[in-house]
Design brief:
The protein has 341 residues and is α+β, with helices and mostly antiparallel strands. 36% of the residues lie in helices and 21% in strands. Strand 12 and strand 13 form a beta hairpin. Helix 2 crosses helix 12 and helix 4 packs antiparallel against helix 5.
Length: 341
Amino acid sequence: MKKLRVLALMDKSLVPPESIDGLTDEQLAPFKTEYDVTAALYNLGHEVHALGVSGDLGVIRRAAEDFKPHIVFNLLEEFDGEAVLDQNVVSYLELRRLPYTGCGPRGLILARDKALSKQILSYHRIRVPDFAVFPRGKVVRRPRRLQFPLFVKSMIEDASLGISQASIVQDDAALVDRVRFIHKRICTDAIAEQYIDGREFYVGVLGNYRLQVFPPWELVFTKAAEDSPLIATARVKWDLKYQKKLGIKTRQAKDLPPGMSGQIARVSKRIYRSLGLNGYARLDFRMSPDGKVYNIEVNPNPQLAYGEDLAESAHAAGLDYEALVQRILNLGLRRGQERDG
């Protein structure tokens, strides 16, 4: 295996320390992905330069000129505090002819806009929840076709930002309140979609043109009340104490209806290709009690920490963590070669 010079881009506040000895899980959590990926790259024998980026593309230019990387490992989820600007960093890398890991700008743009991505998937006859968009500065008026209960969230933010149990609304008054919350607190347009009660699955997909779909991973609450809505709120995703209290974990999906795993794999490939994704992604699904599967979210460049959903599902498919990181590197290097071939 060729040893590479890898420029790892990450938020300036998330550059990990050289050692994590003595750190608690809570202290490690903010930069766990960045630490795990760079540690894996070191263990694979690559030369790694971890570069913190905030609001200046010049640091990337200077690092590229000095370090002369073979490839950029892109761990940025935003730029200058704006989630929607991550695609511009990737576009900059393309303009500089720098190979990079993960999704290209087109896929990032399409997947980031939750309404646009749902419209594209609907066109391709892929089942998504019915929805409506509520722009900032406009009167909140629900279309008659959109029936309660509804799930309200930001149009563009990810990582469950702004999502709580209050995101599920049962009437027009609650809808107005929650949409206004998104407008004022998250500062984005809001989207309200049909709430699909049922099981929630996360499906990892790896590849540019030839795709590998990992086994479905399921969100489970082992200690929550039976009537508690099973949704991935910000606390569910990021609050370690809350996770322990409710017994929240993800694991390989069990007891699926016959043929369901194959159906999910096939629709995952269709979604990935319909939105122009490449590199790697995590697709989120809900399965209703009658066995219908809905895509609720598309996440290019998802969390890549050791022990998280993507890495665990990859391991179940035969890829250990370092092998997964190396495959992502290889896909970044081959992106143009596969297109040409």
